[in-house]
Amino acid sequence: MKVGIIGLPQSGKKTLFTVLTGTRIPEGSQLAKPLPGTADILDPRFDRLVAMYEPKKQQPARIDFVLLPKMEKETISKGSIFQDIADMDAICLVVRAFEDEAIFHVDGHVDGVRDAEMVCSELIIHDQIFVEKRLERLEITLKKIKDEDQKKEFALLQRMQTHLEEEKPLRLFDISDEEEALIRSYPLITRKEMLLVLNTGETEIGSASIPEPIQTRCEKDQMQALCICAGMEAEIALLDDAEEKTAFLEDLGIAEPALGLLTRAALKALGRISFFTVGKDEVRQWLVRKDAPAPKAAGVIHSDLERGFIRAEVIKYDELMALGSEAEVKKAGKLSVNGKDYKVEDGDILNIRFKV
């Protein structure tokens, strides 16, 4: 699961990437190729479970972020940036909203609405060009050979072309499982889920809001939008003492650090939920696709658990916290035993019974 971070020059992409992954990027360095990094998912439920069980080991789930080369005329014209984006599972667009005379803007002045619209339009144009070229090739082929699958693909791409001409991303385009198989390998960028991060200034911390045109665009195009001050978050991230970090965040009015906001939003975009395994040896957080059946969740832990799945013993996180211990959960009859059809829910605490 990879989330690609994109944006125009001087938007704060590198700073946000550092906040999320801890990867230090030398000042003034030019990014020629994608830079991968990994972030622990901040989840207060995991922290409370660790405090309750005091395990020998603890392992939060992690998510991959990839910093992509900046979107400039050169990378757009060459198409290299789009090749990089096509390899991602979701996209995080960073839009500059902070004023700083020491940091230039390629268009002369800061305008988050303009920048967001420009990038979104470029992504749609990329998919339009790809669809048009593919239609041209199919049309030539179909004149020579009447292939049923290619005829279906041609009709599907024609519908996609009309959709894109209306300046709508393909994640809003309805597609059947059969049609999905026809285009699965195609680098259609606007089919990917997308987050938009408005990188605000320090004076706006706690009071920043998404401009109405951007909010309207995000709602229309099914994008999540967040306000983050990456510069200040980067300074706080340098602090070693956890209590000092917490105090700084509280003083600034930052209810939740960027890492928590972004990782949760990324999980939603990727269609993933968390479940937990607990015990004195280890408390661990796992990720699985939303609505996955219990055997699939078991397979995330180990393939043997999926292969030999018998049942899943499930404790609901809220009930464990309310009752205080597993013993009290069982005493209250709140531990449920579920078979292969059970769909794992966010926050479930699982104990998998299996035999191989």
UniProtKB/TrEMBL annotation:
Domain YchF C-terminal stretches: 273-354
Keywords linked to the UniProt accession: Metal-binding
Signal peptide: none
Acyltransferase recorded as keyword: no
UniProt cross-references to Pfam families, sorted A to Z: YchF-GTPase_C
Protein name listed in UniProt: YchF family ATPase
